[in-house]
Design a protein that fits this description.
Blueprint lengths: L1 H22 L4 H10 L6 H14 L2 H30 L31 H17 L2 H20 L5 H26 L12 H23 L1
Helix pairs in contact: 2-6, 2-8, 3-8, 4-5, 4-7, 5-6, 5-7
């Protein structure tokens, strides 16, 4: 038992050191960029583009099953982290004032998040969506974009000081499991089979890319106005 506790403490120390290293690399431009990128509502156009691809390619009943499936993925991933795991693990966020390392953490606009951060619901939700989209369409560049989008979201949570890397890794696993389970149920209910050709498949990449460009422009303008 002592050896196990020592190994766990070493893992926690490594996690903390990696967090402090990444969080310590910051500047004013990325303060604006990461804060905006980490927002939920800014990505609504990209979500709408994913829905658009479904509507253009699937029967309305399959599209409805997709939307229900996505809602289930997000709900399961989010609640598994927030309701089932966090209250029992009770790992303080790095930026939480009760955390001994909080004075060393770079935060943006006073944002510290809730009290506990293990696992990361942002990681669970974004990777849950990314994995479900991967399972659904099986298209290389859309998968690459969605995974990159989710990965940068995770990086932004470390940058903002509200999650350790370990929080994000476990959150990603939660998102993967939720997406896989719901996708298997979706296949049984809808009878869906992967399509070889999916017209308009690049719409989410285009809209998501434009959103990132918009965030870059916003961050630049804020720097110039400062």
């Amino acid at each position: 038992m002592t050896a196990l506790m020592d190994a766990l403490q070493r893992a926690i120390d490594i996690d903390t050191n990696i967090f402090l290293f990444i969080n310590g690399m910051h500047n004013t431009f990325f303060d604006y960029f990461m804060s905006a990128y980490s927002g939920k509502w800014v990505w609504v156009p990209m979500y709408a583009a994913i829905w658009y691809v479904m509507l253009r390619n699937f029967h309305w009943k399959v599209t409805l099953c997709c939307m229900v499936g996505l809602a289930l993925v997000i709900t399961i991933a989010d609640q598994t982290g927030a309701t089932l795991i966090r209250p029992y693990v009770e790992r303080l966020r790095p930026a939480n004032l009760e955390n001994p390392i909080s004075d060393m953490v770079h935060i943006v606009n006073g944002y510290r998040g809730g009290r506990y951060g293990f696992p990361s619901c942002h990681a669970a939700n974004t990777f849950g969506l990314a994995f479900f989209v991967w399972f659904l369409f099986r298209k290389r560049w859309l998968t690459v974009f969605m995974m990159g989008w989710a990965l940068l979201t995770c990086y932004s949570r470390i940058y903002l000081g509200v999650h350790y890397p370990g929080d994000l890794i476990v959150g990603t696993l939660v998102g993967l499991i939720a997406a896989y389970i719901v996708y298997r149920l979706f296949l049984k209910v809808s009878g869906y089979k992967t399509m070889k050709k999916v017209p308009h498949i690049y719409a989410p990449i285009l809209v998501g890319g434009l959103t990132i460009v918009g965030i870059l422009i916003y961050s630049t303008v804020m720097i110039l106005q400062a």
